[in-house]
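Example for tutorial group B:
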């Protein structure tokens, strides 16, 4: 299990792949596999047959997972994609900081 630089709810910028250049919000972080699910990125279509709960059937779209290394966190203060540094405060908690402007993200 590896440490992922983004948390759910963060705004991210996609660096590589078919959705390169898109921005979205992290819906879920899969830390064991090092992947994230981003809203509006890597949309996958699944064809479903009619069931009792869904009598119409049809095509269901849902976002798929992409590797966490392919996204960059968007700093809330400078609104640009950035790398993340971690700094420990006086009371011992670790906070994420923007490498561009140096302000705290958390």
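The residue assignment follows.
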């Amino acid at each position: 299990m590896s440490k992922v630089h983004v948390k759910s709810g963060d705004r991210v910028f996609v660096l590589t792949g078919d959705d390169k250049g898109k921005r979205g919000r992290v819906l879920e972080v899969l830390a064991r596999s090092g992947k994230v699910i981003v809203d509006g990125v890597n949309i996958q279509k699944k064809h479903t047959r009619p069931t009792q709960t869904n009598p119409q059937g049809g095509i269901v779209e849902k976002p798929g997972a992409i590797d966490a290394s392919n996204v960059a966190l968007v700093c809330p203060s400078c609104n640009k994609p950035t790398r993340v540094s971690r700094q420990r405060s006086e009371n011992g908690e670790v906070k994420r900081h923007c490498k561009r402007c140096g302000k705290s993200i958390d």
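The chain has a mean pLDDT of 92. Compare this with the pattern of hydrophobic and polar residues in the output above.
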